Amino acid sequence: MSSTLVLGILEQGLVYGIMALGVYLTFRVLNFPDLTVDGSFTLGGAIAAAMIVAGHRPAVATLVAVLGGLAAGAATGLLHTRLRVSGLLAGILTMTALYSVNLRVMGRSNVPLLRRETLITQVESLWASPWTTLLFLLVAGLAVKLLLDWFLQTEYGLAIQATGDNPAMIRSLGVDTDQAVLVGLALSNGLVALSGALVAQYQGFADVGMGIGMIVAGLASVILGQALVRVRGVFFGTLAALVGSILYRAAAGLALRMGLAPGDLKLITALVVVAALAVPRTLEWAGQLRRQARPRSERGGEYA
Amino acid sequence: MLSLRGVSKRFRLDGGWERPALQGVDLFLAEGDFATVIGPNGAGKSTLLNVVAGTLRPEEGQIWLDGRELSHWPEHRRARWIARVFQDPLRGTAAHLTVEENLALAWARGRRRGLRRAVGARERRRFQEWLEQLNLGLEHRLKQPVGLLSGGQRQALALVMAAATRPRLLLLDEHTAALDPTASRQVMELTCRLVAEHRLTVLMVTHNMEQALEVGNRTLMMHEGRIILDLQGEARRRMGVEELVASFARLRGERLVEDRLLLG
After folding, report:
1. Chain A within 8 Å of B109 (Cβ-Cβ)?
2. Are B167 and A172 in contact (CB under 8 A)?
3. Which residues of chain B neighbour A165 with C-beta distances below 8 Å?
4. Sequence-distant (≥ 6) Cβ neighbours of residue B223 within 8 angstroms
5. What domain range includes position B245?
């Protein structure tokens, strides 16, 4: 593999890794299947691109994009906790509504950022090297990871973790679990929108379709990462999400080089997630068959 | 302390039928009371605890604790003063979090949870001391996920978490019923120790008649959503298990006659 290809994979892995951290927060920590992601990722890209084109500073545009993501997550959270809409449906409703919002924000389906000043061009102008962008995204990805680690170890963060683990128990300890879910969803989608804003600046455009399949890519990253980093706890959980994201982009890059069309990637991604979900179950099933097939005496011998 | 006034709760069944779970329950617990609650399945024992804890809202009646009316408070607000241990050891602790993280969650009961580090050096020392007093071998397992502990250890931990912040009222819902005999005895001993140490007011549901008479200072008998017997003092000391069963049969009989008279 050429070094520019490796560089590209690492850069993409890190910039999409921030989205995977958001997915980790909802799916793994809160145990909430949040489908808002496809919409909030695009929302982040749309807000950042539209504001940069309107002449705002890229840092401000990125910050507002994060606020947009927070609001999107809160919308899903309110649907779920106030109106008692199921988690899946609440996410789908927000995601669908966001499609229209995103088009309104951008004014059209695609906003190019050619020859515009973005966070990426700003850091590149600071230090001209092929490594600059990677270094910037590495710092950004690690900073988000460490912030999330810190937050989840605080008193409130621990209450959010417990909400995903045992809601009845944490309510009996005085935590408003509805509020914890709401805060968790908002933060998660804030991270997803940050990722979307950075991706738009990294690739040089925002597109209304840029978030399609993002939730599955995020899930694939989290699952791949956890297959590799098998240590429990938040620190390694978030690390796994970042590592998984890089692995996922590497696999996608490889698939493209092997001649697959970019359009086939979503199918491959879905299959990867299905495989990852199927493998443990199949192993369990195979193990049961083996145990049943062996006679009792042989089984006893195993422990002798 | 705790007082329930005319508390009624109905469960809606399919087809519009309603089953009364609590029928105008009046109850007063004085500071330091340790009341055990017995009665057949469906008598309303768990519903009584759920209504006090705020998991269920009664249709009628009031619930007061220390001169405050809690009737309309959500469960998480009542949790500041009311602690609870469930029957299922899996329900009282968070399996994926470590022993010290679970203790930290309990330590923050009733306080605003902010952005302070949940488990710092100071907390770790405090939790270590708590667990050393228990003699359960848990003091060396602070950093292990609770899911690795046995049912008895998890229940003991849940009990410590409930009692740690000296709640005004402790609700125990058959909290030893799902354990093996040894663990059950240990958890019951621990319960009595913690209750005495923190001078807690307790409402404990149990299926064990002997336990219901031995432990605490009051025994409440429930049947069809009513408290039909409230034993305390000399009468309770003289009461044996057989006599208790007999009086249940007698009281239930009287109730049936009463109901028949009402219907007739």
Report:
1. yes
2. no
3. 94-97
4. B39, B40, B43, B248, B251, B252, B255
5. 2-263
pLDDT for residue B14: 76
What integer pLDDT is reported at residue B260 of this predicted model? 56
Is it the case that residue A207 has pLDDT exceeding 70? yes
Task: Give alpha helix (H) positions in B165-240.
Answer: 181-198, 209-214, 233-238
Interface contact A172-B97, CB threshold 8 A: no
Q: Which residues of A touch B164 (CB under 8 A)?
A: none
Query: Does pLDDT of A298 surpass 80?
Result: no
What is the least distance, in Å, from the CA of B93 to any CA of chain A? 6
Give the ipTM: 0.90
- Residue B259: what pLDDT? 56
Identify the sign of the CA torsion A144, A145, A151, A157.
Answer: positive
For the domain that residue B219 is a member of, what is the CATH number? 3.40.50.300
Domain containing residue A25:
3-211
Q: Are B107 and B165 in contact (CB under 8 A)?
A: yes
Please compute the mean of the pLDDT values over residues A104-118 and round it to a whole number.
96
Answer whether residue A190 is part of any domain.
yes
Interface check B91 vs A, CB under 8 A: yes
Distance CA A228, CA B149 (A): 26
Picking from A201-210, A275-284, B18-27, which range would have the lowest pLDDT averaged per residue? Answer: A275-284
Does the residue A253 lie in any domain? no
Q: How many domains, chain B? A: 1
Residue A112 domain flag: yes
Within 8 A of B172 by CB-CB distance, chain A residues are: none
For chain B (264 residues), the mean pLDDT of every run of 10, in chain order, is 94 79 95 95 93 95 96 95 94 95 94 93 92 85 94 94 94 94 93 94 94 94 93 91 87 68 49
Q: What is the pLDDT of residues A64-76, one digit of tens each?
A: 999 999 999 999 9
C-alpha distances out from residue A116 to A49, A58, B100, Å: 10, 10, 51
Count of domains in chain A? Answer: 1
Is A275 inside a domain boundary?
no
**A232 contacts in B (CB within 8 Å)?**
96, 145
What six digits make up the tokens of B46? 């768990």
Residue B181 near residue B92 (C-beta atoms within 8 A)? no
Residues 6+ apart with CB under 8 A from B115: A151, A154, A155, A156
The token duo for A257 is 């080089």
Burial class (CB in 10 A: 0-12, 13-18, 19+), B171: buried
Average pLDDT taken over every residue of chain A: 92
Question: Cα separation of B56 and B134, whole Å?
Answer: 33
Task: Assess whether pLDDT exceeds 80 at residue A300.
Answer: no
Q: Could you tell me which of A41, A20, A32, A144 has the C-alpha nearest to residue A77?
A: A32
